[in-house]
């Protein structure tokens, strides 16, 4: 077998790919340009750093596709999910993590693995030989991005990701705000009070929207166009789509009761989610923004409860590069023109921490199979993993290909006896089928018998 797997990029996908390969007995060299080469969004040199939200989203493996993806990654011995579980924070039904200890723990485990070596260097060209996985994520270095674009024979596709601000808890006015998860969701009191809520009446909301629309925004460089991913839209872009858009999105007031004024229903609510284990930092949920820093401070001061808030980090925006995977990759995630190179993570056109790590998990396993001369059966499309890889390697329309979160719309329909079922029943059918098929693919059920 070839002696070593090389992985470019130490984010979620690269870290997971390295772990999967090394656990299977294949030596790995992980190439990471940070901290020697910095990016706009990263703050540390840690692997698997979370640059936007600190949430892995829903952890419900019966009713939610991303929760199902969590389940599949846990079943496959994924380092990202195992470490996330060890550093989870109260977040209602979501899986949120203490971001710095999480990244530090992933880094420590990879550094300690006897089959993994890490080289801190920037790679700017496509390798001509060997076994490689490119998992450079949304902030691929310019040299490597240009090399990929030249090989693909087309311009790089890109959209823009925005980052939400983080607030110091002790500067939030808790006489105005209160702690409650929407619909009191969660099994413990800590989970049921995982979010801070800042209420607005109609007049305050309308004034906030006016200020948001008028605020000075970050411009784009010549030749750049603002193609945003819909799941990570800046709040001002949402507001531009209609004055009520935010009130039916991240500022929806449903499922909450203000204990300071229980008889008055808020017209809109801004939520903040805990960002670290100490509870000293909270991020403003869904408030990705491209407003300039000065504008952010004045606009966010209009939010009741945040009028005197101090920010640990203000929001920002960065370019997110991805390839046209349906055109460029085969069903083993290999570059068709250079099959010794695989791609994994957000650069393939999946969106989200979990989806990125999941594609790293599959790329690592596929590389191991090829290097060891074994046959890896196709990943069942009925699973969350299979639905995603099928989408990016052929299921999506190449002409309109855009980044995608995992969702049940990517799965083959379930056939229910007795006619159409309600959503909860249908989703449970999807997840039951997926879990059985994923275990079969992993060989766990056969081993258990």
Automatic annotation (TrEMBL):
InterPro entries: FAD/NAD-bd_sf, MnmG-rel, MnmG-rel_CS, MnmG_N, TrmFO. Its EC number is 2.1.1.74. GO terms for cellular component: cytosol. Its cofactor is FAD. Pfam families: GIDA. Keywords: Cytoplasm, FAD, Flavoprotein, Methyltransferase, NAD, NADP, Transferase, tRNA processing. GO terms for biological process: tRNA methylation; tRNA wobble uridine modification. GO terms for molecular function: flavin adenine dinucleotide binding; tRNA (uracil(54)-C5)-methyltransferase activity, 5,10-methylenetetrahydrofolate-dependent. Residues 5-373 form the MnmG N-terminal domain. The keyword Methyltransferase applies. FAD binds at residues 9-14. It is found in: Cytoplasm. It catalyses: uridine(54) in tRNA + (6R)-5,10-methylene-5,6,7,8-tetrahydrofolate + NADH + H(+) = 5-methyluridine(54) in tRNA + (6S)-5,6,7,8-tetrahydrofolate + NAD(+); uridine(54) in tRNA + (6R)-5,10-methylene-5,6,7,8-tetrahydrofolate + NADPH + H(+) = 5-methyluridine(54) in tRNA + (6S)-5,6,7,8-tetrahydrofolate + NADP(+). Coiled coil: none annotated. PANTHER family: GLUCOSE INHIBITED DIVISION PROTEIN A, METHYLENETETRAHYDROFOLATE--TRNA-(URACIL-5-)-METHYLTRANSFERASE TRMFO. NCBIfam families: gid_trmFO, PRK05335.1. This is Methylenetetrahydrofolate--tRNA-(uracil-5-)-methyltransferase TrmFO. It comes from Jannaschia helgolandensis.
